[in-house]
Amino acid sequence: MKRMTGWALALALVAFGGVQAGNAGGELRIENTWARATPAVAPVAAGYLTVVNDGDTADRLLRIDSAIAQRIEMHQTVHEDGVMRMRRIEGGIVVPAHGRVVFAPGGNHLMLIGPVRPLVAGEHFEATLVFERAGARKASFEVRAMDAGAHRH
Ligand SMILES: [Cu+2]
After folding, report:
1. How many Å lie between the centroid of ligand 1 and the Cα of residue 8?
2. Has residue 152 been placed in a domain?
3. pTM for the full model?
4. First to last CA, the chain
5. Domain that holds residue 31
6. Which residues surround ligand 1, an ion (CB under 5 A)?
7. CATH of the domain at 39
8. Number of domains in the chain
């Protein structure tokens, strides 16, 4: 049954990709959405994405909703006295006009608090990105192997 679910999600992803490609009016592009696979039991998981703004107006990513976890926070990684710490990004994050926001290992990341199931490499999950101007935009995250990327967060 698990296998079937995976295929259904993959098909949904393909269908969704087609819809998005036809949406010529969108000035925001959501790219490279992925999350790191987790062990069987994990209190948190890390996710990443890039938002590219081709428009003349800045937007703001307010929050990310998904059924995959109890909640998703946006975190930044800061270096303090040679120690890497995570800090929650409050009030959303600005996507500059003709600019981009990058969540990637070692820097900004999404913190999936309380994943409802283990994240298995090769699977996908859906999330909704809520922007101040562009509104709600759906995205599919690909789960990649635990050692993908250089850093744990
Ligand atoms: Cu974090």
Report:
1. 30
2. no
3. 0.78
4. 31
5. 2-144
6. 75, 86, 111
7. 2.60.40.1890
8. 1
